[in-house]
Amino acid sequence: MVRVLVTGGAGFIGSHLVDALLNRGEEVYVVDNLSTGTIKNIKHQLNNKNLTFIECDLLEPNKRIKVEKFSVIFHFAANPEVRVGSTDPNIHFQQNVVATHNLLELVRRSENRPTVVFASTSTVYGEASKIPTLEDYAPLKPISTYGASKLACEALITAYAYTYNFNALIYRLANIVGSRSRHSVIYDFIQKLTRNPEELEILGDGKQTKSYLHVSDCVDAILLGLEKAREQVEIFNVGSEDQIDVETIAKIVIEEMKLKNVKLIYTGGVEGGRGWKGDVKNMLLDITKLKTLGWKPRLNSKQAVREAAKSLIKELSEDNPKKYLTM
Q1: Domain spans of the chain?
Q2: pLDDT digits (tens, 9 = 90+) for 222-272
Q3: CA distance 143 to 105
Q4: 315, 245 Cβ separation under 8 angstroms
Q5: Is 175:238 a contact under the CB 8 Å cutoff?
Q6: Is pTM beyond 0.90 here?
Q7: I need a labelling partner for 300 at 20 to 30 A (CA). Which of 53, 104, 201, 215 fits?
Q8: CATH topology of domain 185-210+242-281+299-319
Q9: Residue 258 half-sphere exposure, CB side, CA atoms within 13 Å?
């Protein structure tokens, strides 16, 4: 049995990772401040003898986190909302950069140096001139404070790993979708259509085209990369092999909600049709590096979006059946 720590383990991707680790028989400790995550995401595991939940914030020094106990730390705690950075960049600095630095300081001071696995993002590439984009693409020029904060975390993790002699894996994730997500475009569309099933506002021009990956494929990639990594600091792209635009996502959500004659309203967005300032319009990662190790996504972007829409509609209607009468 391996003892692991998952920061942000009550969040969207983190909770799915916790499920997979427990299914493998690992002893899992979850640290979460429940600011964006929720205990409901791991409620079905709370009676599992191999799960320990610790509510605390990485922004505050806390002696309850003893990193010496763990062989692997999955660092998934972060503020996941890209748009918030355009109005309050300090949120990303504090919850992403400072929190990561605090965790790395715990690792530095420990006698045992666990492997650190970090959930980064495709937004570190900014507006890449080469699509699909490889891990060694340069220069990295993020156009959002979210992307910048994640790139800063990557730099800190890399420097700490080499300076203080531990291993690290960095996963640059495409748009991950699936059940328990509460900040995706799919979730936003469901919320808007629930309020008004006759029309749907789409931020931007609807032509933003990106890679979407189902969370189950994402977790499989994370665990395989951990098993197969050979470098002291390893970086992997994680995404699907195709793309889908926002307008198509809207139509899929409408279909899955069984709505008819919905009027699509485009805001026009900013800077050439972006949904918001810092929104990357075109993203597709080159996932050759992970594929050579034996991983391949089960679902393409369109299939992942449809599966996620079904899951979220079902979840939300079960949570509040009176509100989600359209489903």
Answers
A1: 3-177+213-238, 185-210+242-281+299-319
A2: 999 999 999 999 999 999 999 999 999 999 999 999 999 999 999 999 999
A3: 28
A4: no
A5: no
A6: yes
A7: 201
A8: UDP-galactose 4-epimerase; domain 1 (3.90.25)
A9: 7
